[in-house]
Amino acid sequence: MNFYTMWLLAEGPGKKLQETVGGEVGALFFLAVIIISLTLFWKRAFTAFIGFALFAMLVSVFIFQPQLISSLGSDAFKWLFEAYLK
Q: What's in the keyword line of the UniProt record (predicted)?
């Protein structure tokens, strides 16, 4: 068995583990965001609530869906410079 075949076989369980742990961490992150947001909203700290909500949205996109950021950047580049690319 060569190295490449072993690498392909080893990728399967690691990928499943990453997806499972990522899902659990995502659920815990979402729970923490809800608790902190409700606390700030209950204390009537609306400015802190809005700031935290925006921060949580940015963090969640960068950590849990980084492929969205890379595709957004490439799509924006193509949209801006499509006339020069032709």
A: Membrane, Transmembrane, Transmembrane helix
